[in-house]
């Protein structure tokens, strides 16, 4: 004949247990507040929406960041002097335009590097020839037994070669000024 009150954790609903012999009878007066049920369901729905939106956001951000990360890695390679880098991502948005311009820039930088190396090779050759000529004729002029006519001829060749070097140097300086402008 003893009465015990039980409370559910989610909902406040008292129950009475009555022991009759070996049997236990539970009598519940379930006075469940509609507002509590509604609040629980709303919390469950909001939690589900939050989890689902986090998953969708993670997938979308990964998809959007992938081209940017590839472009960042490619720019680091270009910074090291590697101009044969190309980013292969097809996109029609602003990122796609940026990647297209990046690929065009690396091609132009590669061409400019080739032109610069070719220019240096040509200039080196053009300077080497007159210097070798001047050096050779200067050694010949050191010979005291050389007739005056040959001395004059060799000294004229040396003068011509120094004028040639001077013109080359002037042209290079002009090219440098044009390049800076």
Provide a concise account of the structure shown.
The protein has 181 residues and is mainly alpha-helical.
What descriptive keywords fit this protein?
181 residues, mainly alpha, three-stranded antiparallel sheet, 3 helices, 3 strands, 70% helix, rod-shaped
Question: What would your notes on this structure say?
Answer:
The model has no long low-confidence stretch (mean pLDDT 84). 70% of the residues lie in helices and 8% in strands. By secondary structure, the protein is mainly alpha-helical. The N and C termini lie far apart (106 Å). A hairpin with a 2-residue loop joins strand 2 (15-20) and strand 3 (23-28).
Our measurement of the CA-to-CA distance between the termini, rounded to an integer number of angstroms, reads 106 Å
**Strand numbers in spatial order across the main sheet:** 1-2-3
Overall residue-averaged pLDDT value: 84
- What series of H and E elements makes up the topology? EEEHHH
Structural class: mainly alpha
Q: What is the 3D form? A: rod-shaped
The number of strands is 3
Tally of helical runs: 3
The radius of gyration computed from the alpha-carbon positions, rounded to a whole number of angstroms, is 45 Å
- List unreliable stretches of 5+ residues: none
